[in-house]
Amino acid sequence: MTEQPERSHRVRHAVVWLGGLAALVQMSVFTFPVAAASWRREPWVRDLVAGHFPAIVGLPSAALASFLIIAAFEARFDRIKMRLGTLVEFHGAAGPIVLWILCFTAMAMGIKLVW
């Protein structure tokens, strides 16, 4: 019985590390090549990025940031449980999923308002 909480704690930390690794992969695969092509002033990259920057960079970054926030929150404070009045209660896997959706929606709306 004492090994179970320690094991789940390790799993949560592994998820946070995998999220950080995903951020590095995103930067190395998508961000750095586009930045390098932009540095070389290739016209197709300039036009594409200028016209669709929120969709190309903003939304994937918001999705990853939402995941990292939820993963870090769950790793730090154990399980996520939410209750909306007396109507709905989220716990188990539904808690992080609903919180991720709310976090991503807020970031996407912020991106839409800014651009």
Walk me through this protein's architecture.
The protein is mainly α and 115 residues long. Helices cover 81% and strands 5% of the residues. The chain has a two-stranded antiparallel sheet with strand order 1-2. A hairpin with a 3-residue loop joins strand 1 (82-84) and strand 2. It has one domain. The chain has helices at 3-39, 43-77, 94-114; strands at 82-84, 88-90. The N and C termini lie far apart (52 Å). The protein is built from three helices and two strands.
Give a brief outline of the structure.
The chain contains 3 helices and 2 strands, in the order ααββα. It has 115 residues and is mainly alpha-helical.
